[in-house]
Design a protein that fits this description.
- The structure is a single chain.
- The chain is mostly helical.
- The chain has one domain.
- It has three helices and no strands.
- α1 runs antiparallel to α3.
Amino acid sequence: MFIVIFAALGGGVAYLLRPAVPLIGQLPFSIVMTDGKNLHGLERLAQPYAQQSLEYLIAGVVIGGMLGIIASYLYALTQDDDRHHRTPPRP
């Protein structure tokens, strides 16, 4: 569960931090997810920014997922420690 949460958070942060096209700003989600393949005419000048934004998004999801793996591992370690340090109930 940690992996999914952290991957989603990483993707969200990466989406917010994606590069902006000069004079236009950040590209919409639909253009980023299609890698700018649906751009025509002068809009094609924004395709490298769409590709870079998609790479940021993928990197954010991957890095977030890796942090989620680490978090779930650390959480599992703390749960194991709690089980070993409990005193057994008295009869």
